[in-house]
Amino acid sequence: QVQLGESGGGLVQAGGSLRLSCAASGRAFSGASAGWFRQAPGKEREFVAAITHSIGSTYYADSVKGRFTISRDNAKNTVTLQMNSLKPEDTAVYYCAASFVVRGTHLSNPNEYIYWGQGTQVTVSS
Questions:
Q1: Closest Cα partner for 122 from 77, 68, 79, 71?
Q2: Which residues contact 87 (CB under 8 A, 6 or more apart)?
Q3: pLDDT digits (tens, 9 = 90+) for 81-114
Q4: Minimal CA–CA distance to 113: which of 40, 19, 24, 50?
Q5: What is the DSSP letter of 76?
Q6: Dihedrals phi, psi of 20, to nearest 5 degrees
Q7: In this structure, is the dihedral angle defined by the CA atoms of residues 104, 110, 112 and 117, taken in order, positive or negative?
Q8: 37-68 tens-digit pLDDT
Q9: What radius of gyration do the chain's Cα atoms show?
Q10: In the chain, at which residue ranges do the beta strands (DSSP E only) sit?
Q11: How far apart are CA 33 and CA 38, in angstroms?
């Protein structure tokens, strides 16, 4: 079992930055790939970014490439999402997720993740 908890959400003006953190506890988190997803009201949950457990390869949705950066610190059992140049369309609840089995192209599929945090609200005002 892995327990995940997000923090760092809030209200920011367009063009601003936020840093989301996901703290993991339980089973050895260093062996899990991790992802960030988001869900806006009335929309489906969508992939934002992912990082693998092994060499830390990173993957991004086209909508956030060049603006968001995902990283992990296995010693601290944390995954971080640095979000820069935020836009109003980035407004959503952001979720951290983890899986010990997801690989490759499946990293962007929320159904491949077993462990989820409770989410943190990000609101970007125009």
A1: 68
A2: 14, 124
A3: 999 999 999 999 999 999 998 877 889 999 999 9
A4: 50
A5: T
A6: -95, 140
A7: positive
A8: 999 999 999 999 999 987 889 999 999 999 99
A9: 13
A10: 2-7, 10-13, 18-26, 33-39, 46-51, 58-60, 68-73, 78-83, 92-99, 115-116, 120-125
A11: 17
In this structure, what token pair is assigned to residue 30? 């260093």
Place of tokens 């369309």: 89
Q: Which amino acid is at 67?
A: R
β-bridge partners, 87: none
Q: Is 51 helix (H, G, I), strand (E, B) or coil?
A: strand
Q: Residue 112 has which token pair?
A: 């491949």
Residues constituting the chain: 126
Residue recorded with tokens 């979720």: 95
